[in-house]
Amino acid sequence: MITVQRLVFAAALLAIQVCSVMAAPIGLPQVIAALENPFKPDSSTGLPALETVTAIFFQKSTIADKNKEIRADGEMFIRFASSRTPLMFRFDYFRPTKHEIVSDGELLWTYLPENKQAIRSELTGVFATAGFDPSRDRAINFLQGLGRLSKDFSINYSQQGMYDMAGNYVLELRPARAMATIQRLLVVVRKEAVYTKADPVKNPARPEYAFPILSTTVYDHSGNSTTMEFSNIRANDLLVDSLFSFTPPGYVQIVQPPANSR
């Protein structure tokens, strides 16, 4: 006859076994892998698992010496770099003023409708566009090198703590070699991207899980910072080439920065 004591003991033993499985240790390498893997190109196709992402963004920029904060929001479209194609992106800002930042991998346009002005910049020296291979070449820009962050940055948990209030992982990245625009970088990695056993890109439990980044904060060498938070995320939508091209209206003044400013 099964006694109450035996039932209690069996239940306790089962609970210990379940907890031991659930408490399988998650280390820094696993968090870094969850961050990098969606952006690494496949060895056979040269394409990353996460080819495109569309999201709503909220941006907060802080100017240290003026103690000033600027807030903005908008929608972004990104086609990530592969061994075949360069990084392409489009940021449409809704507030505080409407403007567009568009790149086809060769040119970068910043369109300011209120000023009737478009700034045209060539990307040489900003993005490595010619024959860039994310699995082999050092990225010049953070967005371009998401699949190889552990090669281009020293990565640890944030000094303020490894988790945010919701239990997501917070990583601090410092460039392995000096970067003109980045002194350090904080990246909040979605906890579901770390815990899930299913492929978060091919078989996402929810669409936003395919993109492991919840927010980034970039600090420059002057102490200024820019935080971007992402929501309403869609992964691997078909994004046509024309989305990343820009033709300025005829009435717009085109400005090209001097070579020494790039």
Report on the architecture of this protein.
The model is unreliable at 7-23 (pLDDT under 50). Helix content is 14%, strand content 34%. The chain has 262 residues and is an alpha+beta fold. It is globular and about 60 Å long. The chain has helices at 4-22, 28-36, 149-152, 191-195, and strands spanning 52-63, 68-79, 88-95, 99-103, 107-112, 117-122, 153-157, 169-175, 184-189, 213-219, 225-235, 253-255.
Number of strands: 12
H/E element sequence: HHEEEEEEHEEEHEEE
Biggest sheet details: 12 strands, mixed
Overall geometry: globular
Q: Measured on Cα atoms, how large is the radius of gyration?
A: 22 Å
Strand content: 25-35%
**What share of residues is helical?**
10-25%
User: What's the end-to-end separation, in Å?
Assistant: 82 Å
Strand sequence of the main sheet, in spatial order? 7-8-9-10-11-1-2-3-4-5-6-12
Mean pLDDT: 83
Secondary structure tally, helices: 4
Low-confidence stretches: 7-23
Q: Which secondary-structure class do the elements indicate?
A: alpha+beta
